[in-house]
Design goal:
Elements lengths: L1 E5 L4 H12 L3 E6 L7 H10 L4 E4 L5 H10 L5 E4 L6 H6 L1 H21 L4 E7 L23 H19 L4 E7 L1 E3 L18 H9 L6 E4 L11 E2 L1 E3 H16 L7 E6 L5 E2 H12 L5 E4 L14 H7 L7 H15 L1
Parallel strand pairs: 1-2, 1-4, 2-3, 4-5, 5-6, 6-11, 7-10, 8-13
Antiparallel strand pairs: 9-12
Helix pairs in contact: 1-2, 1-8, 3-5, 5-6, 7-11, 9-11
Family: Belongs to the NAD(P)-dependent epimerase/dehydratase family.
Cofactor: NAD(+)
GO molecular function: UDP-glucose 4-epimerase activity
Length: 337
């Protein structure tokens, strides 16, 4: 079976491509390399001994995208990762985020409609819940006004897919709401490779420990949490990648209960920023210099998943722990230096 993965050289995309190839899917990748590197393709091939087809293509280019779908009319499924993803940057550049995350989604769905393609997995985020009233967060939790343009693009994206599914019974879509993906493949051939200053906690930690950055900034220690720092549900990227295969197979095998479904992907456990720092120090034996700075705009206090629906309906469960994820992230960092 032939699967298109947009943003397939990104952090989560590349790990998902590896899992697909290892399950003998034929994989076609589209990526514009705006926040990834062509070297990731070599990493994927090195792990799997298989070479996916790669197209350096910007999904905003309607003509090129149309030509691509003309060439690949036999796709059995699409996993759509391609998007800009930094909360802070989205606050600074909202229009760029709307163009890149919303316009491209619409163009891909339009091509799917023209070619009568049906199975679609959308890379969504727990940011759609904002600061949830109750923890852990279930899929039934209300979607709140987004705290950032990035979060808003995920909300709008989900609405677009849901509304399209409503009027197209042949279409099947699943939105996967990720909590906080971290870690790297155990081979250290692929991992999180941010371009410029990392926007995510773990690459910032590993780069600081490696001496590339003077110290780690902890955004706020006055949150109403046990140690005052924000709490997130950190999930190993390999566990997350495997969930995409399970979701895709659910659609291909027509096991979905509705033609549009939503699942939370997390571990069900929250860790504070300081807990993550201490866990990293423990598994790596590295002392991490950090300083407390002001809260960051768009950040929420705490978010961790209720994974009951993913465990029971989807038949997927996170298996790897935070220490394993941090250790793999550190080994990946050492390979970069």
């Amino acid at each position: 079976m032939k699967i298109l993965v947009t943003g397939g050289l990104g952090f989560i995309g590349s790990h998902t491509v590896v899992e697909l190839l290892q399950k003998n899917y034929e994989v076609v990748i589209i990526d514009n390399l705006s926040n990834s590197s062509i070297s990731v393709l070599e990493g994927i091939t090195s792990i799997t001994q298989k070479s996916p087809q790669f197209y350096k293509l910007d999904l905003k280019d309607k003509l090129e995208l149309s030509e691509f779908f003309e060439e690949h009319q036999d796709l059995d499924g699409i996993i759509h990762f391609a998007a800009s993803k930094a909360v802070g940057e989205s606050v600074e550049k909202p229009l760029m985020y709307y163009e890149n995350n919303i316009n491209t989604l619409v163009l891909v769905l339009q091509e799917m409609r023209r070619k009568e393609l049906s199975n679609f997995i959308f890379s969504s985020s727990c940011t759609v819940y904002g600061q949830a009233d109750e923890l852990p967060i279930t899929e039934e939790a209300p979607v709140k006004k987004a705290e950032s343009p990035y979060g808003n693009t995920k909300q709008i994206g989900e609405e677009i897919i849901q509304e399209y599914a409503k009027v197209n019974s042949e279409f099947s879509g699943i939105s996967l709401r990720y909590f906080n993906p971290i870690g790297a493949h155990k081979s250290t051939q692929i991992g999180e490779l941010p371009i410029g200053v990392p926007q995510n906690l773990i690459p910032f930690i590993t780069q600081t420990a490696a001496g590339e950055r003077k110290e780690l900034s902890v955004f706020g220690d006055d949150y109403p949490t046990q140690d005052g720092t924000a709490i997130r549900d950190y999930i190993h990227v390999v566990d997350l990648a495997k969930a995409h295969i399970v979701a895709l197979e659910r659609l291909i095998q027509k096991k979905n209960k509705k033609n549009y479904e939503v699942f939370n992907l997390g571990t069900g456990k929250g860790n504070s920023v300081l807990e993550v720092i201490h866990a990293f120090e423990k598994v790596t034996q590295q002392k991490l210099p950090y300083k407390i700075v002001d809260r960051r705009e768009g950040d929420i206090i705490a978010a961790y998943a209720d994974t009951t629906k993913a465990n029971n309906d989807l038949g997927w469960k996170a298996e790897l722990g935070i220490e394993e994820a941090l250790k793999s992230a550190w080994e990946w960092q050492l390979k970069q230096d």
